[in-house]
């Protein structure tokens, strides 16, 4: 599923994204998250992009954390940046999330819509 790059989300795009997040298979979700988080659209997620994602997730979800967003970002890169180039490719992102429970949990919480669906 690919969104047009017009800077807007129309109703059908919203419904498609919501359906994917709620009912999609794990790999489909991870691929969609990757595209969402690849802010500059270069096909990789760098440390700065991931750090901003982690900060945003923590701001939305709140709670106390044992590590800073910077430390968590560095740990993620140490564990899943297989080729050590300082960027996460789609493949590294998907495989890393599958193999690293902590990273997977954070990614799944980032778009957890269960509280919104419960209100609807």
Automatic annotation (TrEMBL):
One of its GO terms (molecular function) is calcium ion binding. It comes from the Eukaryota. Pfam families: EF-hand_7. Residues 25-60, 68-103 form the EF-hand domain. InterPro entries: EF-hand-dom_pair, EF_Hand_1_Ca_BS, EF_hand_dom, Recoverin. Keywords: Calcium, Metal-binding, Repeat. This is GUC1A protein.
